[in-house]
Design a protein that fits this description.
Blueprint: H1 8-24, H2 32-55, H3 59-85, H4 94-114
């Protein structure tokens, strides 16, 4: 078993999920059950799939769950872009950079494991 807490990708994803919850608290009330929840689910999915992958016994399963985490991170990037254009999140918000960094680290880890 792999220790997910030692992975930089997990540490970033965990912080990202926390920051998404903080940022989405300020979203308009009418977005609570739609956009807010969708962004929160995507953010939690990144960290959760890293953890689940670490718990798998084969390298192929591990990479498969990292792929899912990466997809969720990219989904969240798209949602943050839309939230920025809607005026809900400043384009320069630290959460934007954190999402970008999480995506890059996950992608690098996946590429490393595939070589």
């Amino acid at each position: 078993m792999r220790d997910h807490t030692k992975l930089k990708a997990f540490q970033l994803a965990d912080e990202l999920a926390l920051q998404i919850y903080v940022v989405t608290r300020a979203f308009p009330r009418e977005e609570l059950f739609c956009f807010t929840m969708q962004m929160r689910r995507a953010a939690v999915s990144v960290a959760a799939n890293i953890v689940e992958g670490c718990a798998r016994h084969t390298e192929a399963d591990y990479v498969h769950f990292l792929d899912i985490a990466y997809g969720s991170a990219r989904e969240l990037q798209s949602q943050l872009s839309l939230a920025s254009r809607l005026g809900y999140v400043p384009a320069s918000a630290p959460v934007q950079d954190l999402c970008e960094q999480t995506t890059k680290v996950l992608n690098a880890l996946i590429r490393l494991l595939r070589t």
